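PROTEIN DESIGN WORKSHEET
SECTION A - STRUCTURE
LENGTH: 393
TOKENS:
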């Protein structure tokens, strides 16, 4: 029996994870669940999955959750705040941690799980973008097992040889081919993009996801963050990673080898497949996802990304090549800009301008410690807010 902590249980990935766990009660039990503010949803999850511990974002939310659980006669211990998140991610009772908090808020608890040597199921790509070297060092030093949940990285993981040692050349890897749907604005006239609404940006053609990653998909910053994520997970330099637009999202990514072979992982676009893969690895379990019917598919298309339409993708490649804390600056500026767009303080095309401005004005340094990374994160957020304040609609 594997005992699981889910960080971000009420989000899109968290709910899909619980769906897979519920199909295999003989294999998995839930040790802890976390949510930021959706207390009612978390209470319902606690009633169904009976975790020993639950963590929320504030004292007020903890008081409400405690009251709800007591009324149902549940004995789940309720805690709040970052230290509690780190505690449920690293507790001795836990075998695997699903890291599915969105954004920089996920960094500390995800790192705590890695340092404690857990099986880390990594959905929170922002943690790896911010502090890739420190994170991978923690995994190596503790002997943690890191399994990617992001569908592209999970696909690449499946296409690499067993025991792959983060050395692409030694494994004969010629290219890592990251597929991208291109999001909802792949064909929309570029000069109309500034008028798009948050609702339009969040309406992804193939995937149902949280709002932040949905906007990231529309700007293709999501793919940019994934390029950086692939760099750290697979030890691939920027030049070895190629983004291929594939609007159908059936091929989830590919690895091209020096002998001319290209291995791909295909499936219906449903995150329960990579979640089930990582949970059971190296075994396979049912995920609830329908089998792919190749005969029902129309054509599969592929094209090169347009960096004029998607400047965020170019900014991410720049940040990866610059190294140090540059990706942390990129990530922080993006988080602030996306929130400002969702709050309708800036237009869609201002997202990339905010990020470019922050990258230009804040000098990056060495990502030598988590404290150094967090300091740069704070500086970038402040610079982004200042820029937005003077350019708001
Ligand atoms: P979501 O917005 O649906 O859920 C986010 C979760 O994080 C919620 O449970 C929320 O309570 C929690 N949370 C938010 N802010 C928090 C804070 N400050 N402190 C603690 N908890 C907080 O997001 P999602 O779509 O499930 O994505 C989660 C992560 O997985 C992201 O990093 C995203 O990039 C990644 N991811 C998601 C998908 C997908 O299909 N949804 C695919 C690949 C990767
Ligand atoms: Mg992805």
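SECTION B - SEQUENCE
RESIDUE ASSIGNMENT:
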């Amino acid at each position: 029996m594997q005992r699981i902590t889910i960080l971000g249980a009420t989000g899109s990935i968290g709910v899909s994870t619980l769906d897979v766990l519920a199909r295999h009660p003989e294999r998995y039990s839930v040790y802890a669940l976390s949510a930021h503010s959706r207390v009612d949803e978390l209470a319902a999850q606690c009633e169904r999955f009976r975790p020993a511990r639950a963590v929320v974002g504030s004292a007020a939310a903890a008081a409400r959750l405690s009251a709800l659980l007591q009324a149902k006669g549940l004995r789940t211990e309720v805690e709040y705040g970052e230290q509690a998140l780190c505690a449920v991610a690293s507790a001795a009772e836990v075998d695997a941690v699903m890291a599915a908090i969105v954004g920089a808020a996920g960094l500390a608890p995800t790192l705590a799980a890695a340092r404690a040597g857990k099986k880390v199921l990594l959905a929170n790509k922002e943690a790896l973008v911010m502090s890739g070297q420190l994170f991978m060092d923690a995994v190596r030093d503790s002997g943690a097992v890191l399994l990617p949940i992001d569908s592209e990285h999970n696909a690449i993981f499946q296409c690499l040889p067993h025991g792959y040692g983060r050395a692409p050349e030694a494994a004969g890897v010629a290219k890592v081919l990251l597929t991208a749907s291109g999001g909802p604005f792949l064909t929309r006239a570029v000069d109309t993009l500034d008028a798009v609404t948050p609702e339009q940006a969040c309406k992804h053609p193939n995937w149902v996801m949280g709002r932040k990653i949905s906007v990231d998909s529309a700007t293709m910053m999501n793919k940019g963050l994934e390029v950086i994520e692939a760099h750290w997970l697979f030890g691939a330099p920027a030049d070895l990673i190629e983004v291929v637009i594939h609007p159908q999202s059936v091929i989830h990514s590919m690895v091209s080898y020096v002998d001319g072979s290209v291995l791909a992982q295909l499936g219906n676009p449903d995150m329960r497949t990579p979640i089930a893969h990582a949970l059971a690895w190296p075994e396979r379990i049912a995920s609830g996802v329908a089998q792919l019917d190749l005969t029902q598919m129309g054509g599969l298309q592929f094209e090169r990304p347009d960096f004029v339409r998607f400047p965020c993708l170019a900014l991410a490649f720049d940040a990866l090549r610059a190294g140090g804390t540059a990706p942390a600056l990129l990530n922080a500026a993006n988080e602030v800009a996306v929130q400002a767009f969702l709050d309708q303080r800036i237009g869609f095309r201002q997202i990339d301008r905010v990020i470019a401005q922050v990258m230009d004005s804040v000098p990056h340094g060495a990502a030598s410690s988590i404290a150094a990374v967090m300091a740069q994160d704070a500086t970038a957020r402040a610079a982004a807010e200042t820029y937005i304040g003077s350019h708001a609609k």
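SECTION C - NOTES
Residues 8-14, 35-36, 38, 57, 100-102, 105, 123-126, 150, 207, 209-210, 212-213, 271 surround nicotinamide-adenine-dinucleotide (ligand 1) (CB under 6 Å).
The radius of gyration is 20 Å.
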